[in-house]
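During the reporting period the student researcher (J.K.) took over the structure-prediction task from the postdoctoral fellow and processed the backlog of single-chain submissions. One of the processed entries is reproduced below for the supervisory committee.
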Amino acid sequence: MTDFLERTELLIGRQAVENLQSRHVYIAGIGGVGSYAAEALARAGIGQLTLHDADTVSTSNINRQLIALHSTIGRKKTDVMAERILDINPRCRVTTREYFMRVEEMGSVLEGHYDAIVDAIDVLNCKLAFLTHATKKGYRVYSSMGAGNRLDPAKVASGDLFDSRHCRLAKVLRKKLRQEGIRQGIQAVWSHEIGRTPDLLPEETEYGRPPQGTISTIPALFGLTLAGLVIRDFVEETKTSPAHGI
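J.K. obtained the following structure tokens:
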């Protein structure tokens, strides 16, 4: 068996473990959702991860983001996440990208080969451009819908983005993606829970818009579910490959 992956090997078999070790996953957004997705993928033995986030850790991140501690405030999220991943699996090849994704420059993103794309972007126009770009390039895409203003873990669901319900972000994305000719094929995680209204003072804004209320559990569940979908699909591919069982 293979060191820290011995229990994983008991569950999915050596060939599937080796398959995970050969995979490269791109994660856009290392916040409440993306940080949990990244760590779960690392603990499953994914061999290469590209982490993309231009932000630094702030105090307001501590309630929900895996990389947010008082000791990491002010540090780049990608640097903190990379350190955690390498402490889990020193053999994992980690690439970090810290520049802001701009809609007009999206063509330069995702150059190279990736076996899966995890979208944990929380800015609408950037998220739409990223999903459109990644899907049209033929990548397998896994996307997080709105995890803010929600509390009930039993309402978290997954499936094709175009089958999602009761998520305002998903509704907007579905409409705009259809205008781009995209009508299926994006795996997503969303919540059926109707979003709660944040308890805000009128002047409180974040990036020019009202901030959303968050809790420790829901973004983590979204991130772990996204990672689980990626891992499941890789493992299922191993089972159906001609070499399975040899």
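The committee noted the following: The mean pLDDT is 93.
J.K. will present the remaining backlog at the next meeting.
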